[in-house]
Design brief:
CATH class: Mainly Beta
Order of helices and strands: HEEEEEEEEE
CATH topology: Immunoglobulin-like
Distance between the termini: 51 Å
Oligomer: single chain
Largest sheet: 5 strands, mixed
Bound molecules: copper (II) ion
CATH superfamily: Cupredoxins -  blue copper proteins
Number of strands: 9
Strand content: 35-45%
Radius of gyration: 20 Å
Helix content: 10-25%
Structural class: alpha+beta
Shape: elongated
CATH architecture: Sandwich
Number of domains: 1
Length: 118
């Protein structure tokens, strides 16, 4: 009886811990376009993104010009801050293995970069 009660208590504790554990936190990234003819995607510590692990990411998009947009495309993701938009947007995306491209659509010849998710 005591053993059964202990088992139940242990099970309840395990459930409580599981419920309290936060979901896998999304990694933060910062995307910036403009005000000049530049487009970047960096980690929270300021390193240019070239390679990421699959998972959930929160991207703070800082669109600093009404002649540029920040568009991100790749497996399962198609996002666009909009050319006319100026300001900050936050996107939560789930990145999968593959190649992603971020681009300013009107200036895609020069304002474009890619990164890989592996
Ligand atoms: Cu542009």
């Amino acid at each position: 009886m005591a053993r059964a009660r202990f088992a139940l208590l242990a099970a309840l504790c395990a459930l409580t811990l599981a419920a309290a554990a936060p979901a896998q936190a999304a990694t933060k990234l910062v995307a910036t376009v403009g005000p000049g003819f530049t487009i970047t995607l960096k980690t929270a510590s300021g390193t240019k993104v070239t390679r990421l692990k699959p998972g959930s990411y929160t991207i703070t998009v800082r669109d600093r010009s009404n002649i540029h947009n920040f568009a991100l495309k790749g497996p399962g993701v198609a996002k666009d801050s909009g050319v006319a938009f100026v300001g900050t947007r936050t996107w939560t995306v789930r990145l999968k293995a593959g190649k992603y491209t971020y681009v300013c659509t009107p200036h895609a010849i020069s304002m474009i970069a890619t990164f890989r998710v592996v």
